UniProtKB/TrEMBL annotation:
Name by which UniProt lists this protein: Gamma-butyrobetaine dioxygenase
Gene name per UniProt: LOC117568902
Organism: Drosophila albomicans
Domain TauD/TfdA-like: 125-367
GO molecular function: 2-oxoglutarate-dependent dioxygenase activity; metal ion binding
Pathway: Amine and polyamine biosynthesis; carnitine biosynthesis
Swiss-Prot/TrEMBL cofactor(s): Fe(2+); L-ascorbate
CDD domains: CAS_like (cd00250)
Domain spans labelled Gamma-butyrobetaine hydroxylase-like N-terminal: 19-90
Length: 389
């Protein structure tokens, strides 16, 4: 969409007076975002919808002027309407490539940085539980690190039942699932989920069978097995996808395009459930960036609703993905009072098997927070601390 020549020249002069490059604004966008009371409701910070019932897509600027006293651009449109835009408002919404990149990075969501297993020690960050509860600055640092690197460890949390709820409430609120608000991971007879066994737990993402999959996983270690097992495994699946794209592009394409049936059937307390979601292992957004990874061997259904000829190529591609994920995994063992937090849309996690006896118990309590809620809190904190507008 092109900016009209007259309007573009006027904005060039406007920015030149501030010794900055020219701003870019499509005419129809300016008309759609008129800030007058007839078009915009200040108390809700949103445009009024009635104008769209008669939207004139051929609207053009008839005359424009710059008010030095008000630091505002005034426009008269050929449909008789008048609009005003302050310089600060325009500057934040400039369509130039640099400003759009700044907005996406500093306000929408921070750009993820992918890492290999060997780099884990370099990106690892620890936060103190009490500081997260008392300091908004530390809370922002934790959310930012979690968004960029996908993992962060919280230390010295009390061995109490309400630790995860307090953390989630600092962000917003817990995400409830078919397993409740919180869930315990420990060996138990008649387990309803493979994670509730003492056997090795392969790398996976939690709950790929949900269309709206929980975004942030929090795991609070209450008791840790003294056996040689029980070690955490963690791998950055976005980095794994990078390697697959570089080394095996055809396999990468297969895992991006082949829908897989993910399912969870069972009972928990008084709730019976049968969850199904069909989606490829690697999910990309409209710009080809990673959006979500789906992977869980126990939760991959025996139904595979694709053409028979697509099956073997998918298995071959998935075998490569799992090999790379295991090769790139880091290992560590949490201690009582640790809360491991990670991006469930990005990280694949697991653990080694362990001995489970009356004297050797491993007990982890888990909970979720949705990324929508976490990013909302991140933006509010950044605004309050002067990082962005």
């Amino acid at each position: 969409m092109q900016v009209s020549r007259d309007l573009q020249q006027e904005l060039v002069l406007l920015r030149a007076s501030f010794e900055q490059p020219a701003m870019q604004f499509p005419e129809i966008w300016l008309r759609d975002n008129c800030q007058c009371p007839k078009c915009y409701m200040q108390q809700t910070r949103s445009r009024l919808p009635h104008g769209w019932n008669y939207l004139n897509t051929a609207v053009q600027v008839q005359q424009l002027s710059w008010c030095v006293a008000q630091q505002a651009l005034h426009i008269e449109w050929n449909d008789g309407h008048q609009s005003s835009y302050t310089y600060s408002w325009l500057k934040e919404r400039d369509f130039s490539p640099a400003n759009r990149a700044r907005y996406l990075r500093d306000f929408y969501r921070p750009e993820p940085r992918h890492w290999s297993g060997k780099q884990f020690a370099l990106i690892q960050r620890e936060f103190q539980y009490q500081e997260l509860l008392s300091s908004d600055e530390v809370l922002l640092e934790w959310l930012h690190h979690l968004a960029v690197y996908g993992v962060a460890l919280i230390k010295q949390a009390p061995l109490e039942a309400d630790v995860l709820r307090k953390l989630c409430n600092r962000v917003g609120f817990m995400r409830r699932t078919t397993y409740g608000d919180e869930w315990s991971v420990r060996a138990q007879p008649g387990a309803s989920n493979y994670a509730y066994l003492a056997a090795p737990l392969p790398l996976h993402t939690d709950m790929p069978y949900f269309e709206y999959k929980p975004g942030v996983t929090l795991l609070h270690t209450l008791e840790q097995s003294d056996s040689p097992g029980g070690w955490n495994l963690l791998s950055d699946a976005f980095h794994v996808a990078d390697l697959l794209r570089q080394r095996h592009p055809r396999a990468f394409q297969v895992l991006c395009e082949t829908p897989v049936d993910w399912a969870d059937i069972g009972n928990d307390k008084e709730l019976s459930f049968h969850n199904i979601w069909r989606e490829p292992v690697i999910n990309l957004d409209a710009n080809g960036q990673y959006k979500r990874i789906n992977h869980s061997i126990p939760q991959r259904d025996s139904h595979f609703s694709v053409a028979a000829g697509q099956v073997r190529p998918w298995y071959e591609a998935m075998a490569l993905f799992i090999q790379l994920a295991n090769a790139e995994a880091c290992t560590f063992k949490t201690t009582p009072g640790d809360v491991l937090t990670f991006d469930n849309l990005r990280m694949v996690h697991g653990r080694t098997g362990y001995d489970d006896t009356d004297r050797n118990v491993r007990h982890i309590v888990g909970a979720f927070v949705d990324w929508d809620i976490a990013f909302s809190r991140w933006r509010v904190l950044r605004h309050a601390q002067g990082y962005c507008k």
